Amino acid sequence: MHRALLPVACAVLALAPLSAALAQAPAAAPETPGSEAGQNRIQVVNRTGQDATALHAVRSGRADWGSNTLPRPMPTDKSFTLRTRSEAGCRFDIRLVTADGKRATLRDRDICATPRVEVTAADLRPAPSRPAEGTPNPRAAGSSGTGFVVATDRVLTNQHVVAGCNKIFVRTADGRTLPAVPPARVDESVDLALLAVPGDPGEVVSFRSTPDVRRGEGVIAFGFPLAGLLSSDPKLTRGEVNGMNGLRNNPNHYQISAEVQPGNSGGPLLDMQGHIVGVVVSKLHAQNIAKQTGDIPQNVNFAIKGSAAQVFLRRAGIVPEVAPSSGADRSAADIGEDINRSTVFIRCEK
Fold first, then answer.
1. Which pTM does this prediction carry?
2. Catalytic residue among 143, 265, 282, 342
3. What is the pLDDT of residues 222-248, one digit of tens each?
4. Which of 43, 111, 167, 312 sits between 20 and 30 A of 71, alpha carbons compared?
């Protein structure tokens, strides 16, 4: 990497800060059925062709799924009715798990407008792979970065985030810690790595297909900067695409103004429709540039282009999900809630 660039993976973490970085706030109390006034009802119908063993319904945007609401398995073609507090609102995420471990996940359902939800076999997705064995060693020297889910049990990050690691762990949005299974697929020339992380690390995100990214577009960086110093929750920053190439005219990079710090490396860069347009990779090393030029650069950061990341993924045997970006911009808060489900904290033990 050029000396003027400062990778934003993370500095070495001390023992106490690492424990703090892995902490997770307790989940809110799960919604439970009831019959009092001032409640909304959700009737979930099992049309999957097999017994359902678990049913979860939580407010949209919540990172975890709460408790299983089924007192016993629900046969196919049967229904189960939940009652939620009216102050919880109308937008809910629903997950049904079948006897063979498959899951149907229905996001952002308006239960006030449509209180009856039918779950079919077409909604089911394969059961997550079993996690590999292993737990983090708090005494091990370590560094950290960010990654995001690009396929089932696959996490994309920077190569420099995982370089030299003896073990790699990810912390998911719902607070679980999962080990990555070696070897990682890496390409040092573009500074990308693909990790195999069995155990359902998060939801798969879509890359932007069209239109082409333009200079001046708004973007959002999401990740875990300065782990052990800042709070352990992910951070969102907004900015713009400043330039269509990186340092020394690197055609695989964008220059961006979204602020990033050590620990942001490998995190997603999103457009204002919530689609991936890049992978955060580095920032200009202000001290080195000041020595060379006598001037301190302000907020010059870089991201690997989404197109380059897609080429890397296809070479690794992954067909990335893509979607066009059109229509009105979404709010940064809404985009943050969505990408939070797909973004992981990466712990590298050396």
1. 0.73
2. 265
3. 999 998 888 889 999 999 999 999 988
4. 111
